[in-house]
């Protein structure tokens, strides 16, 4: 890449390589040296967004989950979304009950290995595959039973479509969790879905707020505020605390983008959003893409031969291995396995282990958007939606994954090229660390960018922000003084005889100021101006 290449150029290059037209649902994610995730901004230079030295490692991901993934126009798009949701299931982001988990895993099994064949699939064959962070024998038997008896004859495309239809009905569909704490100090996970704002605690969804009820989002430091306007003019403000200011800003930007994408009718309605107060500009951000309605209208106009999809012979992604290559969690030593379940963010516990849940509001996102969703189920505003049971309750694999050290990255890359599988914790600790050979697997994308990194520019950027804040404060102060001067001139020199001005002029304090200070000052200024004018005339 050239140093001034924009993010849009890199993204278009990748989508061309994938033969992908419905590209607005996807994005490029990277992790900075402080282990904070970011979405690559398409309107800015790629190199300037990086705080590390090249080569830069990035990941191709679904950024905006389709409201109805089964309604996507092209099979290639559905396949890429399928890979993303399969990855969400593997990392514990897509929480569901045992019955739903078994069906989803059976669909994956059917899509990747086809119909059950007694000669190829001996007893207990489903136990060799890793669909979730944790398995149980009962769940594995249920997966094999569904695969044998209910899915025979389904093609990979059909199985993937049925998988998407089922996943879309789950409460945590489209959840990209942000670890936070509530005002009581309890661990929680915030997420933005196609249907609204979600808060998860334990294995429950304690908040669901539709996009049309969200009136404003802002952040100050580590504090994130969500302003909600519900029926009967009821207004509430939800407050959460992120681990770092950078994490809070990332949460705010994700919220702004998701609300614009799913709520607005057209991209011309997008406005620049600021987290500012009167004196300081704060952060300003503007969503730069198309909105969901425009994307659907554009997809309907696609007319081309369906591109070929290469499902067979894919190199497995480290962060979401193919089920035929993924290692079982039981293959990892217990002492190392426990390290996987330690929260990356300080003070936050895993999603499953959080027992606190204070219901504020819970509502279903189903019927308005999802034709295949739960039909007539209505939730009380005081109920908590249970989204997973004790048998299947994934833990902290929903947490952000840190950047691997460079030496570990090269080691993992060498092992990958040599065909050696990585362990679970190595996969998790290097999600953004090592590229794979198959972009079609929705895995990692390595962009080898020529040019210097942005480490040196960070300090300069902070200094520039401080200088701009000081200048802005001075400008506001001068503006206020100018307004006061204009008001004083109006009071003393104008003939306006309104009641407000008359009352001020009749006060003893104003009369004393006018005759002892203002009139002499006015005569002094007039004398100086005449002297300057006469000097200019003489010259």
From TrEMBL:
Keywords carried by this UniProt record: Cell junction, Membrane, Phosphoprotein, Transmembrane, Transmembrane helix
Record's keyword annotation contains Transmembrane helix: yes
TM helices/strands, residue ranges: 470-492
Signal peptide coordinates: none
GO biological process entries: actomyosin structure organization
Ranges for domain FERM: 1-266
Record localization: Cell junction, Adherens junction
GO CC, alphabetical: adherens junction; cytoskeleton
Record-linked SUPFAM superfamilies: PH domain-like, Second domain of FERM, Ubiquitin-like
Matching CDD domains: FERM_B-lobe, FERM_C_FRMD3_FRMD5, FERM_F1_FRMD3
Entry function: May be involved in regulation of cell migration. May regulate cell-matrix interactions via its interaction with ITGB5 and modifying ITGB5 cytoplasmic tail interactions such as with FERMT2 and TLN1. May regulate ROCK1 kinase activity possibly involved in regulation of actin stress fiber formation.
Protein name as it appears in the record: FERM domain-containing protein 5
């Amino acid at each position: 890449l050239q140093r001034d290449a924009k993010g849009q150029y890199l993204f278009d290059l990748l989508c061309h390589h994938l033969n992908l037209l419905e590209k607005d649902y996807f994005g490029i994610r990277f992790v900075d040296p402080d282990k904070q995730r970011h979405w690559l901004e398409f309107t800015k230079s790629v190199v300037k967004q990086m705080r590390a030295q090249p080569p830069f490692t990035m990941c191709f991901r679904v950024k905006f989950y389709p409201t109805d993934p089964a309604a996507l126009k092209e099979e290639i798009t559905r396949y890429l979304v399928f890979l993303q949701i399969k990855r969400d299931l593997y990392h514990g982001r897509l929480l569901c009950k045992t019955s739903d988990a078994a069906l989803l895993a059976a669909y994956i099994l059917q899509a990747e290995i086809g119909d059950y064949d007694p000669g190829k699939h001996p007893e207990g064959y489903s136990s060799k595959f890793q669909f979730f962070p944790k398995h149980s024998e009962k769940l594995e038997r249920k997966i094999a039973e569904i695969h044998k008896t209910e899915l025979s004859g389904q093609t990979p495309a059909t199985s993937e479509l049925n998988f998407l239809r089922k996943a879309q009905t789950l409460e945590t569909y489209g959840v990209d969790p942000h670890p936070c704490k509530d005002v009581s100090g309890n661990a929680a996970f915030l997420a933005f879905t196609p249907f609204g704002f979600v808060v998860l605690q334990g294995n429950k969804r304690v908040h669901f707020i539709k996009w049309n009820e969200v009136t404003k989002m802002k952040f100050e430091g580590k504090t994130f505020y969500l302003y909600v306007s519900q029926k009967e003019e009821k207004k509430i403000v939800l407050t959460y605390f992120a681990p770092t200011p950078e994490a809070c800003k990332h949460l705010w930007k994700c919220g702004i983008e998701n609300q614009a994408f799913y709520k607005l009718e057209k991209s011309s309605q997008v406005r620049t959003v600021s987290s500012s107060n009167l004196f300081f500009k704060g952060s300003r951000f503007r969503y730069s893409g198309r909105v969901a309605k425009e994307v659907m209208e554009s997809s309907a106009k696609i007319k081309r031969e369906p591109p070929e999809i290469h499902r067979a012979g894919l190199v497995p992604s480290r962060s979401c291995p193919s089920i035929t290559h993924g290692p079982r969690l039981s293959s990892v030593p217990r002492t190392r396995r426990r390290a996987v379940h330690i929260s990356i963010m300080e003070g936050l516990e895993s999603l499953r282990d959080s027992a606190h849940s204070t219901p504020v509001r819970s509502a279903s996102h189903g019927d308005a958007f999802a034709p295949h969703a739960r039909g007539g189920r209505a939730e009380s505003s005081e109920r908590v939606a249970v989204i997973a049971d004790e048998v299947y309750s994934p833990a902290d694999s929903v947490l952000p994954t840190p950047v691997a050290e460079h030496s570990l990255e090269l080691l993992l890359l060498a092992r990958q090229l040599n065909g050696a599988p990585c362990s679970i914790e190595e996969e998790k600790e290097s999600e953004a660390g090592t590229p794979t050979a198959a972009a079609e697997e929705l895995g990692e994308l390595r962009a080898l960018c020529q040019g210097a990194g942005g480490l040196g520019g960070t300090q300069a950027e902070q200094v520039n922000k401080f200088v701009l804040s000081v200048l802005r404060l001075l400008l506001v102060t001068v503006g206020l003084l100018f307004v006061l001067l204009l008001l004083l001139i109006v009071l003393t020199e104008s003939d306006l005889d309104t009641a407000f001005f008359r009352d001020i002029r009749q006060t003893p304090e104003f009369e004393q100021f006018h005759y002892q200070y203002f009139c002499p000052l006015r005569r002094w200024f007039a004398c100086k101006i005449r002297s300057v004018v006469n000097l200019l005339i003489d010259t």
